Amino acid sequence: MTGLTREEAAGRIMVALDYPEAGAAKKLLRDLEGIPCYIKVGMQLFYSAGPAFIASLKESGYRVFLDLKMHDIPNTVKGGASSITKLGVDMFNVHGAGGKEMMEAAMEGVDAALAGGSTGGYRPTVIAVTHLTSTSQVVLNSEIGIAGSVEDAVIRYATLAKSAGLNGVVASPQEVQLIKAACGAEFKTVTPGIRPAGAALNDQSRIMTPSEALAQGTDYMVIGRPITGAADPRAAIESIIEELVGNE
Ligand SMILES: O=c1ccn([C@@H]2O[C@H](COP(=O)(O)O)[C@@H](O)[C@H]2O)c(=O)[nH]1
Predict the structure, then answer these.
(1) What's the mean per-residue pLDDT of the chain?
(2) Most buried pick, 2, 11, 177, 226, via CB within 10 A?
(3) What pLDDT is attached to residue 87?
(4) Residue 154 C-alpha to ligand 1 middle, in angstroms?
(5) According to the model, what pLDDT value does residue 122 have?
(6) With helix as H, strand as E and coil as C, how does the chain read?
């Protein structure tokens, strides 16, 4: 047993709604009705369904992570962060690779939107992507051309994100303990690369099972295809919740 209630376990899961349009995403939400999970909207759905879909999620009471991974010059990211904050999402992200000034600009964008009062004063959690969970050690060194271990590269971005005032990072569950050691327990870790035992890896590289990720101390685990691609998505998420509660 982990000590998590069923509701707490569900609340650690961010379901990735990687769909081409709102209709398919809404069907999944109907399938999962009543399960208090977080919802992650990425670029595929947001570029198609836009702010109206985010508004409908918020009206339905969901916590929303808008995963657009902004990576641009500081002034542009500041403006993007301001616009995203006005959508009233609970969390959004930028790429750590944009550097400290870009990440600070994102925080300035949040402050500017809040100063305008259009979000009711609600401050989103802002996190930075470290290295994508699809990136392996070999790809990091041989293709991207960054020397050293994935762990060192992730920690470098995590500490940079913390120094820029961000609230956490996206990383693999494999790096959670190192991130917490370097940046503190309160610094949030949001971890994709979650695969229940026996599930297809797809394009993910640095993976762990849900219970392994929880044991590492991850704050939130992002799970897409193991739920959305299942014949019975509700049964799939219920099984993950059971695994997290420790009743398996
Ligand atoms: O490093 C990263 C950053 C973001 N993601 C996103 O998480 C989900 C994972 O989906 P699965 O179907 O469970 O693989 C997806 O929306 C990615 O864009 C990530 O995987 N890794």
Answers:
(1) 97
(2) 226
(3) 96
(4) 16
(5) 87
(6) CCCCCHHHHHHCEEEECCCCCHHHHHHHHHHCCCCCCEEEEEHHHHHHHHHHHHHHHHHCCCCEEEEEEECCCHHHHHHHHHHHHHCCCCEEEEEHHHCHHHHHHHHHHHHHHHHCCCCCCCCCEEEEECCCCCCCHHHHHHHHCCCCCHHHHHHHHHHHHHHCCCCEEECCHHHHHHHHHHHCCCCEEEECCECCCCCCCCCCCCCECHHHHHHHCCCEEEECHHHHCCCCHHHHHHHHHHHHHCCC
Q: Is 175 close to ligand 1, i.e. is its CB under 6 Å away?
A: no
Structure token pair of residue 114: 């809040």
Ligand 1 atom nearest to 229, measured from its CA = 12
pLDDT-flagged residues of the chain (< 50): 248
